[in-house]
Amino acid sequence: MADNKIPVICVKDLYKIYRVGESKVRALNGVDFTIYKGEFCAIVGTSGSGKSTLLNMLAGLEKPTKGEIVIAGEHIENKTENQLVRFRREHIGFIFQSFNLLSTMTALENVALPLTFQGVDKAKRLKKASALLDLVKLGKYKNHRPTQMSGGQQQRVGVARALVVDPEIIFADEPTGNLDSNTSREVMELMQQVVHEKQQTLVMVTHDNHLASFADRIFHIIDGKIVRIDDMTGKSKEEREKEEKKREEEASI
Ligand SMILES: Nc1ncnc2c1ncn2[C@@H]1O[C@H](COP(=O)(O)OP(=O)(O)OP(=O)(O)O)[C@@H](O)[C@H]1O
Questions:
Q1: Nearest to 63 by CA among 116, 103, 24, 27
Q2: Quick check: CB of 20 below 6 Å from ligand 1?
Q3: Segment Disordered: which positions (predicted)?
Q4: Which of 67, 165, 200, 233, CA to CA, is 20 to 30 A from 37?
Q5: Residue 144 and residue 84: Cα distance in Å, rounded?
Q6: Domain assignment present for 169
């Protein structure tokens, strides 16, 4: 990460309280943090800890009960639905667990699709999509449809599609949930490399400590609160694995 840190996501005193009948669920219970340009951050926690709620708030898909969210310099908590649609289109890329690729389109067409919405002309769209598929090492699969590719290859198409519009910020929700461990590692290393090269900002939510260990910083969420942030910046793969093992041992005590 650069020395001059540029804040990209600032969250202040964030609460999300759901009412279920007579009772209240504090899905987010006072969350504060800042994420900087060029960072890969993982939000890790068990099922029901509040990860998806937090990601939905950051993406403006749900309104907080209380608190502030500033993304790329703009407060998003008070934006209208139309403003949010435009905001997401201009600043944010999404990578989901289910790849959400269109089955009737080739890999190239799937990756080029988001550029259509930006009004980019066809020749440019295909050129850019092609370069992205080369980047995710799918140069030979440009004309394959999703059903003609493995799960890992489809996920890499999903990564290429999220990156094709050069989003400042990428949100990923369990991005390798359907993949085996080797393919997961490949996808994570790819995301790590691309985010650092392009100085984008990646926020990933996961329940998996091993996946989280690929991040620069790991935010641990329990019962709607960030209880600890581990800084892994500059640590080697071996050091990360050692720390992950230590965390697992601590968790089992
Ligand atoms: N729409 C809703 N109405 C009521 N309660 C909700 C709603 N959405 C989430 N919750 C509750 O808020 C808490 C946090 O849920 P959330 O989905 O954010 O957890 P999570 O960490 O993403 O879990 P998982 O890994 O299982 O997806 C849980 O107790 C959940 O039951």
A1: 27
A2: yes
A3: 233-253
A4: 67
A5: 34
A6: yes
CATH assignment of the domain containing 74: 3.40.50.300
Give the chain's domain count: 1
- Which of 15, 25, 54, 58 to mutate for ligand 1's pocket (most ligand atoms within 8 Å of CB)? 25
Reading the block at residue 190, the tokens are 């790819």
CB of 47 closer than 6 angstroms to any ligand 1 atom = yes
Q: CA nearest 74: which of 62, 66, 86?
A: 86
163 inside domain: yes
ipTM over 0.90: yes
Residue 154: inside a domain, yes or no?
yes
Distance 26 CA to ligand 1 centre (A): 9
> Is a pLDDT exceeding 90 seen at residue 245?
no
Please tell me the residue having the least CA distance from ligand 1 atom 7. Answer: 18
Boundaries of domain holding 77: 7-252
Which residue is closest in CA terms to ligand 1's atom 27?
47
* Domain membership flag for residue 1: no
Q: Does 26 contact ligand 1 (Cβ within 6 A)?
A: no
